[in-house]
Amino acid sequence: MRIALTGAWGQLGTALDAALCAEHTIIPLDRDQIELGSPATVERIVASGADLVIHPAAYTNVDGCARDPGLAYQVNALGTKYVALACRRLGVPLVYISTNEVFAGDAAQPYAEYDATGPVNAYGRSKLAGEVVVRELLERFYIVRIAWLFGGEQNFVRTVLRLAANPPEAGLRMVADEVGSPTYSVDVAAAVRQLIATEHYGTYHVVNTGAASRYHFARVILDQAGYTALPLQPIRLADYQRASTPPPYTPLANYAGAALGITLRPWEEALAAYLKAIGDSR
Ligand SMILES: NC(=O)c1ccc[n+]([C@@H]2O[C@H](COP(=O)([O-])OP(=O)(O)OC[C@H]3O[C@@H](n4cnc5c(N)ncnc54)[C@H](OP(=O)(O)O)[C@@H]3O)[C@@H](O)[C@H]2O)c1
């Protein structure tokens, strides 16, 4: 297939390109080719003549989205509308990458694919609007929700490793009452490769198995990277000031993918693979 890939050099885009390029022809559409905030995006994608479009590009800075919700909406909601309109014109399916932050985070157990959404911040609202527009405009789509992604140069794992190498005087502190599904970009990309061959369109939760608080995730990162003796203090979400309000509890349950045989390994194993890949496992 000819696959048009937005955000091709972002964290997930890079992993998708690597996972798909042996089997498919990838048409990378980065900022040089498309600006999601502009309706001209429709023509640009139509001109690619793709058989499938994968759309991970987004304004992903959650605090930036909180400060400028209008920009978040333009890029993540209207930008996704332009991508969906292009798919409609081409008559091809779309893979839209969405997020755990479409949920409110007040559930008692992991969210299933068709649980009610209820975003609590501007980023989540803009990404949910992207889902709405995909469902509104297309018959053939995969909405792939992912969470707490690591795999590129800038992510939670890298932040923890940076802090461990040069710990602040006050010591390391991590939020213990924000819980999610840590997920490796390489594993998401492999799952998307499987999913697009199924033609089982719909909504999916593509996350590594298991869940963790930021505190627990950080502890495992430190231990796996050899910083076993480095102390780590738990703090509360309420004590960590930031522009965006994260939903506190958003582990995602993968029912729809699992029914097709698409499951991801436990996040601890995926983390070990990532640390090995970046050479920080000791
Ligand atoms: N990271 C996470 O923890 C996480 C969790 C849940 C869901 N997700 C979703 O997963 C997807 C991929 O995330 P990621 O971490 O790989 O993101 P990323 O590394 O920030 O990459 C985003 C990509 O989108 C491009 N982009 C941003 N604004 C654009 C615009 N206005 N027009 C055109 N392209 C634009 C970026 O280009 P530039 O580099 O040129 O800006 C970059 O290539 C996103 O849809 C995100 O919402 C991520």
UniProtKB/TrEMBL annotation:
Pfam families for the chain: RmlD_sub_bind
Enzyme class of the recorded protein, top EC level: oxidoreductase
Keywords, sorted A to Z: NADP, Oxidoreductase
Gene Ontology molecular function: dTDP-4-dehydrorhamnose reductase activity
Biological or metabolic pathway of the protein: Carbohydrate biosynthesis; dTDP-L-rhamnose biosynthesis
Coiled-coil segments on the chain, per record: none
The keyword Oxidoreductase is annotated on this UniProt entry: yes
GO process annotations (BP): dTDP-rhamnose biosynthetic process
Residues in RmlD-like substrate binding domain copies: 1-277
Annotated CDD domains: dTDP_HR_like_SDR_e
Superkingdom assignment: Bacteria
EC number: 1.1.1.133
GO cellular component assignments: cytosol
The keyword Transmembrane helix belongs to this UniProt entry's keyword annotation: no
Role, per record: Catalyzes the reduction of dTDP-6-deoxy-L-lyxo-4-hexulose to yield dTDP-L-rhamnose.
NCBIfam families listed in its UniProt record: rmlD
Family: Belongs to the dTDP-4-dehydrorhamnose reductase family.
Protein name in the entry: dTDP-4-dehydrorhamnose reductase
Gene: rfbD
